[in-house]
Amino acid sequence: MTVEDEIEIMGQRMNDKIKKIFGRSLHIREVDAGSCNACEVEVNALSNPIYDIERFGLHIVASPRHADMLLVTGPVTRNMELALLKTYNATPSPKLVAAMGSCACNGGIFGDTYASCGGVDKILPVDVYIPGCPPRPQALIFGIMVAIDKLEQKIKRKEALS
Amino acid sequence: MLEIIKKTLRTGCQTIKYPQVPDIAPEGFRGKPEFAAEKCTYCGNCIKVCPPGVIWLCEQKGEKRLSLSCCGCIFCGRCEEVCTAGAIKLTLEYELCAKKKEDLLSSIRSKS
Predict the structure, then answer these.
(1) Residue A10 lies inside a defined structural domain of this protein
(2) A118: domain range?
């Protein structure tokens, strides 16, 4: 089996997985926690005709109450700390958190200072890290695919415990 | 109206088939930095210039270990510029996503 075949199967599996867990679609709420807006530009590019994530059933929504997944960008500034927590609490379970960009992963160029927390994982449990400054839209699609994989594991573990 | 339809038909479908078909980054893209262990002299120039400070050197029992965490790397390419030995290169790899931070770590060791 060649690499191309494997990736083709992976794309197919992604669609199947979303269908099984969320009933056809995954809704994403994008949270800007003090990012420089480069990551937002890439998220915007995801819904243009070239990348078109709607064909996988991935939607960007306007409220955390509609969302299954939070896509957090930026190093989490002190002013956005509480807002991010409130957004997380407003998202219905089972939920996913993806840290997008180097700032969200580790503080990046901003680091851990008096004005920024230095990474989303200091505030919330992060399921998947997507490094890049900013990551390419393709890297984002790949990241979301990995996140869905993790969600499946989470649900299985919960079922095994109960 | 007819002109718009004509233009749309001429443009055709522009959507890339990304997850099904691999997409190779263009030449000059700055992706995951990679070390060449045999070329590295452990001079520490890359550590000094790294803006977010994600490259570090550990010394244990005479063995030197140079580590780089892609988590936090801004892919500026300064380390590649200052490396006189040419031991660090930025590759075209961009699918760096990981479930754990430790998975994004890469390191090389000196033979002693």
Answers:
(1) no
(2) 26-154
Contact B97 A127 (CB under 8 A): no
Is the bond leading into A94 cis (omega within 30 degrees of zero)?
yes
pLDDT (average), residues A53-78: 90
Spell out the domain ranges in chain B.
Answer: 23-109
The answer to whether residue A126 is domain-embedded is: yes
Cβ contact B16:A11 at 8 Å? no
Overall domain count for chain A = 1
Mutation target to probe the B interface, by most B beta carbons within 10 A, among A2, A4, A7, A154 is A7
Kindly state whether residue A122 falls inside one of the protein's structural domains.
Answer: yes
The answer to whether A54 contacts chain B (CB < 8 Å) is no
Gap between the Cα atoms of A78 and A20, Å rounded: 38
Instruction: Specify the CATH number for the domain of residue A133.
Output: 3.40.50.12280
pTM for this prediction? 0.85
pLDDT digits 0-9 by tens, B34-46: 888 888 888 888 8
What is the CATH code for B23-109?
A: 3.30.70.3270
| Average pLDDT over every residue of A148-160 | 77
The pair of three-digit structure tokens given for residue A64, joined into one six-digit string: 């955390």
**Distance from C-alpha of B14 to C-alpha of A52, rounded to nearest angstrom:** 10
Average pLDDT, consecutive stretches of 10 residues, N- to C-terminus, chain B (112 residues): 92 80 83 87 88 88 86 89 89 86 83 64
CA distance A116 to A41: 22
**ipTM greater than cut 0.95:** no
Residue A109 buriedness (CB in 10 A; 0-12 / 13-18 / 19+): middle
